[in-house]
Design goal:
The protein has 126 residues and is mainly α. The protein has one domain. 77% of the residues lie in helices and 0% in strands. The protein has five helices and no strands. The two termini are 23 Å apart.
Amino acid sequence: MIKNILAVILGLVIGSALNMGLIILGSEIFPLKEGFDPMDAMNWDLKYFLFPFLAHAIGTLAGAIVSVKIAVSHHKIFALSIGGFFLLGGIMMVKILPAPFWFISLDLIVAYIPMGYLGWKLAKKS
């Protein structure tokens, strides 16, 4: 039981750290122009959406994989729980950060639950 709890905690921590690392990397690769408001995505160029999406998807995927690798049972449930947790974070961001409908839809539909499921599948194979 302790190992399963640790699996979820480490999955969330590693997924969150990777998420933040990719967001920071994105701001290094695509520096913000002077006067750019990062809290209003309605007028962002397409390139500024790349790293937030990758951060959400890869962070969730990595968190799910870590969770499955550490857990001793209920692997699929833990992987999907990681996806669900990050989905809740994504929903909160939608309420905070105005963004185009296409990005909100893509992000919420693809970056969380499917990545948790894919993490389970990938971790199960290795």
